[in-house]
Amino acid sequence: MRHALITAGSKGLGKKVTEALLADGFSVTVHFHSDITIIDKLKKEWELYSDRIQFQQGDVTKKSDLIRIVNETITKWGRIDALVLNAGPYIFERKKMIDYSEDEWHKMIDGNLHSAFYLLKETIPEMRKNQYGRIVTYGFQEADHAPGWLYRSAFAAAKVGLVSLTKTISIEEAENGITANMVCPGKIVGGMKEATIEQAREVSDEETPIGRSGTGEDIARTVSFLCHENSDMITGSVIEVTGGIDVLHRFR
Asked: What is the domain range of residue 205?
């Protein structure tokens, strides 16, 4: 049985990705930050998969937590075949770079870029043992072109760095049967993060060219595809799942 480790896999987009991987036959280690109430609810909701789920609490901005999560995953399952970096700290307040505090800056870089370094350092050796691995990171629209993103300087800087890291890993680890790709969600807010595509089609969204909002299912379907064993031809790619919306410029 293939095993997947997903960060922030208990709610929002991560929940839909977890459900997709479980449906694909994976066993899954679900990282969460602090909400025990949600985990208690999920244990009941996912009771059918109870023998294939492990929950791990931790802070993705802390190296020690990340290393512990990987180690405990290996101890229980003996392998990690897919790593999905769904967690991505984000500051919703709109402000220029000069107004960021040092703590806010470090939180964005630690949570979105340094966390990837530590998780990859711990996980790739395990993937090499089996000559198989699927790594999926998250970015934002046009991240592979290093665009400026007004009021999102720290988050954007971290994610643009993550693009290069993802592509570098795809080259360095190709000989070990490991792929690495990035998924870039578009406008997916509120309840749409855990909604299905069918639900989204029932509500018109004039801001998105295809006429409906993005959903957690859209992201989950993409991640599921990238984690499939027959998707090995796709590596080093940055895939935008936006419905054609211009996120960078529309929401200024």
From this structure: 3-250
